[in-house]
Structure formats: C-alpha cells, structure tokens
C-alpha cells in the first residue's frame, strides 16, 4: 500500500480500518514523498489505483476543518463497477472504475469518503448546528441532505474494494463477518412516578375503560419499568446479551437529579441480577458530565466502587456527543468502546457503518485506542421525533435488519427499560418482541 508523505496519520488510519479491521488482510504501508493517489499492489504485480481528490489538494494540517471542504453535493452514480448496490454515493472524486492493462483505476476517492464518515469531521466545524441539548442535528448532516443516511456507505465501499482486489486475483482470504443484533438499554429511570402515569393516562385515555386499565397499571404493586428479566430473556433467545448502561450521578436538576441512587437496595438488586445472568453493565455518563472529564471520571468510579466492576463501554445520557472531544475523553479515561454516535432526531448510519471501528481525533490528528459501536436506532427517535406508531417503527427496524444482514454487520439498537408500559407506549412491547422474531433466522451470535 503506497501513498504520499502528507496526511500520513489520516491516510494510515483509513487503510488500517479498511484493510485491517474490516477485511482482515495482511498489508505493508510504504510512504512515497510526492506520490499522487493511492496504490495497492498485489504479490502478482497487479495494482489497484485509487484517486486522491481531497488530501492531495490541501495543506498538511487541520485547515480543512471548514465548511468549504465539505463535499460539494452528493452524486448518486448508477451501475458503478464493483459496487454492491445498483447505485453508489460519490462524495469525493469521480464515479468510474476502469481497467487499464492488468490494473484497475478507481476514480472515487474512497479514502476521503471513509475518513469523512468515520472521523465525523463535519461535526467538528466551527459554529455547529446544535440542538437544545448541545447535540449535532442529524437533519443537518451531509448524509441526511444527500438522502443516504439509511445506507452504510462505508461498508458499501469496503465491499467494492474487496471486489476489485478479488478481480485482481488477491489470494488472501478476507475476515469472516456475520450479522448480530446488539440490544442496549440506557437506565434513565428505574422507578415510575405513579402520579405522572395517572396524569398521562387521563390525558391519553379515549374511554372510561381505557382510563380504568391505565389506572390499574399505575397503581399496581409491580413496576412497569421493571422489564429487565424480559429484556434479557429476549436477548438470550437469539444468542446475544443485553447491554445495560447505568447512571452514576449527575448535577443537572432537570436531567440528572432524582432519577435513582446507586446505594438504593432496589438498584443494587437489579444490577446484581443483570450481572448474575451474565449480561453487560455499561457506563451512562450523566447530562452534566458532557464535556466534563472530572465529573465523567467521578461517576465512573462511583459505579465501579458500588458494584466491584470495571466498566469498559457505555453511552452518554441524552446522546450528548461532540467530535472529537467525547471520543478523546473516553480514550484518555481508558474505556474500550463508546456507543453514543447515533442521532437523536433521525435514525441511520451516522458513521456510515454499523460495525465496531477504531476512532480518530481530527483535531490532534491521531488514531485512538477507543472503538465506536455506532447506535443506529433508538425508540425515542422513532416515537418522539419521527412520531411513528409502534407498528410503523417496527417496519423501520425491519428494513435496517435486512441491511445489516446483507452486509453481515452488527445492528445496535437502544430501547429503554421504561418504554414498554401500555399507558405511555402502547404496542411497543409487541414491537420489540417482533424485532427478535425478525432477526431470529439470520444467525446472530454475540
């Protein structure tokens, strides 16, 4: 693998992810000062040439982190040779692949495309379009504007590269891949408010009978939020484990305080039961820990001390996520996996993939040890932002399961433990059950 001596960290990162993490190939990178484009040369002497339409025209710095560097429109190119779909999304370069002698020449800048999606550098631009919670809006992304947020374009280009290498008679076997459902549950609320439940029931009820049914749920001795065994049963039914992300504190009066205490006997019993069933406990940094490393570390220590565990993965409360600061904080804190990189306002492939992948700090220009497990679908997005019914949401999830199965990749979903009572979430319990029915025959294993 050969490329120039400019933007070495960025280019090296992309090829490590492409050839190493995704394809599992053995490769050697050679730096050639002044080289144009990218060349993958096989032991048989045949070569894959890929265009450099981005880094080659820029000063070797972070000066590209401006809106003028964003892709100038999204082109959808039909029947791109070697692409796995009927059309391909082209962000940088030209949409063509041609054979010249024994070699292939690809006019699409696959390196820039993968770095754009995986590094999320559009979200590091000045004056970002943030919502009221300080989150990047999915509706402001290039992927949403270009109508390809629903497509895992990183995986599409990985498959295209593999097809081109196979055409050139690459003899190495690629890494085996498989679909898996990754159910995650952020424990925002454990105890229901019976007064709020009754109030919501009174507002929603369309008949006296419906109101009486809601009142029975609200006043019952059992908690409609205690869905933990049911959630774990469903995960085990398809051979995977649930990931439960626990809050460790917080100082925001509106978004953190009063949710639950780690010392509470009910909380301790729930967590111990999750661990006894060999499901995973994750970290859920509070609303106020966003961009606050000291608060973040304090909450993590509180959970680890309370339950005698070492936390290695998790997701931020309210999906509060900032590029690259969130990844840097988790990396410097020694965490292995973050799973916050999903949009709150719209579902889809924020990072262009559902696969676990290494992260990159676009400001300090270095690859991180931390990996990202991108969140693709949250029930709050479907019900709250998209205003979909349980049945309509079920259809959305079905389409994403089909995509994930086709590309043999994980699909990470988020359903909170308190999203299944029939007062506030009518039909969602059955919808969640159906997700596992849909994925049952695809052969997932954790």
Determine and state the CATH class of the largest domain: Alpha Beta
CATH superfamily of the largest domain: Glycoside hydrolase/deacetylase
Rg estimate, integer Å: 23 Å
- Quote the CATH topology of the largest domain: TIM Barrel
Q: Tell me the helix content.
A: 25-40%
Biggest sheet details: 5 strands, parallel
User: How many distinct domains?
Assistant: 2
Distance from N terminus to C terminus (CA atoms, Å) equals: 33 Å
Order of helices and strands: EHEEEEEEEHHHEHHHEHEHEHEEEEHHEH
Can you offer a commentary on this structure?
The chain has a 5-stranded parallel beta sheet with strand order 11-10-9-17-16. A 4-stranded mixed beta sheet has the order 3-4-8-7, with no helix packed on it. A 4-stranded mixed beta sheet has the order 12-13-15-14, sandwiched between helices. The protein folds into 2 domains: 2-167, no CATH class; 180-190 and 225-442, TIM Barrel, CATH 3.20.20. The chain contains 13 helices and 17 strands. α8 links the parallel β10 (243-246) and β11. With 446 residues, it is of the alpha/beta class. It is globular. It is 33% helix and 16% strand.
């Amino acid at each position: 693998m050969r490329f120039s001596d400019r933007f070495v960290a960025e280019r090296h990162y992309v090829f490590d992810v492409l050839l190493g993490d995704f394809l599992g190939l053995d490769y050697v990178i050679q730096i050639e000062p002044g080289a144009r484009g990218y060349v993958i040369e096989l032991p048989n002497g045949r070569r894959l040439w890929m265009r450099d339409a981005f880094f080659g025209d820029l000063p070797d710095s972070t000066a590209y982190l401006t809106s003028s560097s964003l892709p100038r429109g999204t082109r959808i190119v039909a029947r791109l040779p070697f692409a796995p779909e009927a059309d391909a999304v082209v962000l940088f370069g030209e949409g063509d692949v041609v054979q010249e002698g024994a070699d292939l020449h690809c006019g699409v800048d696959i390196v820039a495309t993968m770095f754009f999606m995986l590094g999320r550098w559009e979200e590091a631009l000045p004056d970002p379009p943030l919502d009221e919670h300080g989150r990047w809006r999915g509706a402001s992304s290039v992927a949403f504007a270009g109508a390809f947020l629903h497509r895992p374009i990183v995986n599409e280009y990985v498959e295209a590269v593999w097809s081109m290498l196979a055409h050139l008679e690459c003899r190495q076997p690629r890494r085996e891949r498989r679909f898996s459902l990754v159910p995650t549950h952020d424990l925002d609320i454990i105890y229901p408010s019976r007064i709020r439940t009754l109030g919501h029931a009174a507002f929603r009820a369309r008949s006296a009978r419906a109101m009486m049914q809601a009142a029975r749920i609200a006043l019952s001795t059992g908690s409609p939020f205690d869905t933990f065994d049911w959630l774990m049963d469903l995960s085990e039914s398809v051979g995977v484990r649930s990931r439960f992300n626990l809050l460790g504190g917080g100082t925001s009066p509106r978004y953190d305080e009063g949710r639950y205490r780690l010392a509470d006997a009910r909380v301790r019993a729930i967590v111990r039961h999750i661990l006894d069933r060999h499901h995973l406990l994750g970290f859920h940094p509070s609303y106020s820990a966003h961009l606050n490393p000291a608060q973040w570390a304090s909450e993590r220590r509180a959970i680890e001390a309370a339950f005698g565990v070492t936390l290695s993965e998790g997701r931020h409360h309210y999906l509060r996520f900032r590029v690259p600061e969130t990844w840097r904080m988790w990396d410097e804190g020694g965490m292995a996996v973050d799973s916050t990189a999903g949009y709150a306002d719209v579902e889809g492939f924020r990072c262009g993939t559902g696969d676990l992948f290494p992260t990159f700090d676009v400001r300090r220009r270095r690859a991180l040890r931390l990996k990202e497990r991108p969140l693709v679908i949250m029930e709050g997005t479907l019900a709250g932002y998209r205003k979909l019914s349980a049945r309509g949401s079920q259809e959305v999830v079905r389409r994403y399961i089909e995509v994930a199965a086709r590309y043999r990749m994980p699909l990470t979903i988020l359903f909170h433990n308190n999203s299944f009572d029939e007062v506030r979430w009518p039909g969602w319990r059955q919808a969640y059950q159906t997700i596992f029915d849909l994925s049952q025959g695809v052969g997932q294993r954790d």
